[in-house]
Amino acid sequence: MHWYDGAKRPPTEIRALLEGDDLPSAGSIFVGTQGVLVLPHVARPMLYPDKKFKELKFPDVKEEDHWGRYVEACLGGTRTTAGFEYSGPLAEAILVGTVALRFPQTTLNWNTAQLAFTESAANEFIRRQYRSGWAVKGLS
User: Fold this and answer.
1) Any idea of the CA torsion for 125, 127, 130, 134, to the nearest 10 degrees?
2) Which residues face 30 on adjacent strands?
3) CA distance 96 to 1
4) Is the separation of the CB atoms in 121 and 109 below 8 Å?
5) Which residues on adjacent β-strands are paired with residue 111?
6) Which 3-state string (H, E, C) describes 49-112?
7) 134: Cβ–Cβ under 8 A, 6 or more apart, which residues?
8) Radius of gyration (Cα) for the chain, nearest Å?
9) Would the pTM of this model clear 0.85, i.e. be above it?
10) What distance separates the 2 farthest-apart alpha carbons in the chain?
11) Which helix H or strand E contains 121, and what residues bound it?
């Protein structure tokens, strides 16, 4: 996985796969063996090369009010559209990416089971060292 943030944008060879279209201001790019999927943060996905995927019909997806769905789940026990089994690993990947920003041009190896990097310097950003008297039980 490569993480680009702020002024750091994907390299020219990745942008060239998009056939001249502008990159979204926020989102993800998945480069596969048969094409490229651009998933903007708030917009319809785009597939490249255009010629190969022009006949592909995207499924109709019913829009939902995710705030209302969350409240309903809290009050009535209905499931949210993205439960903790999905959102937990997603949050983990994003947080690991923010740590990686502190180590440019460095490959970091993340161990999910141990919630730690194999590179010890990066681990100082995983858990906070609390001052005496401010520690939170279970978080230190």
Assistant:
1) 140
2) 37
3) 11
4) no
5) 116
6) CHHHHCCCCCCCCCCCCHHHHHHHHHHHCCCCCCCHHHHHHHHHHHHHHHHHCCCCCCCCCEEC
7) none
8) 20
9) no
10) 63
11) helix 120-123
The one-letter amino acid at 30: F
- Amino acid letter for position 24: P
Per-residue burial over 55-77, b if 16 or more Cβ lie within 10 Å, else e, is eeeeeeeeeeeeeeeeeeeeeee
The letter for the amino acid at 75 is L
SS3 137: coil
* Helix (H) or strand (E) run with residue 28 in it: strand 27-31
Which H helix or E strand runs over 15? helix 12-16
Tell me the pLDDT of the chain (140 aa) as tens digits: 777 777 778 888 888 888 776 778 888 888 989 999 998 888 888 899 988 998 988 888 777 787 888 888 889 878 887 788 888 999 999 999 899 989 988 899 999 999 999 988 999 999 877 888 888 887 75
